[in-house]
Amino acid sequence: xxxxxxxxxxxxxxxxxxxxxxxxxxxxxxxxxxxxxxxxxxxxxxxxxxxxxxxxxxxxxxxxxxxxxxxxxxxxxxxxxxxxxxxxxxxxxxxxxxxxxxxxxxxxxxxxxxxxxxxxxxxxxxxxxxxxxxxxxxxxxxxxxxxxxxxxxxxxxxxxxxxxxx
Length: 166
Known about the structure:
mainly alpha, 3 domains, two-stranded antiparallel sheet, two-stranded antiparallel ribbon
């Protein structure tokens, strides 16, 4: 089996196989289930291949955790256009296009009016969404739960199986 880092992950120059082997050892030691607290406990050891992937400065880690909490909070708000259709809701905010000098942010989704500066960046957002959808299709396309959805996505977007696999 070949282990590698997923696209976009900052691997810090570390070997994916060594980390995967360590995660498997942690899972085995925990009775067959990989728990986050066990991963952190192992990573706290200086010799662990997982150690460099964590922020060990408590002040910086606390700030990073607050940013994660803010992300969860922002994603938790949904908008419904009608009280009669509670099933028709969407997230009020979506990830904004990232600019090199700025950290990731959030923009209003189509459920609410978009500011002009965000609308100007939407082509990048659509390109990113299509790339992500293609990756999702490759990753989950073989699951029987999506047997009807995959051909529909391909048909709507004009994709062929060969194009998506590339």
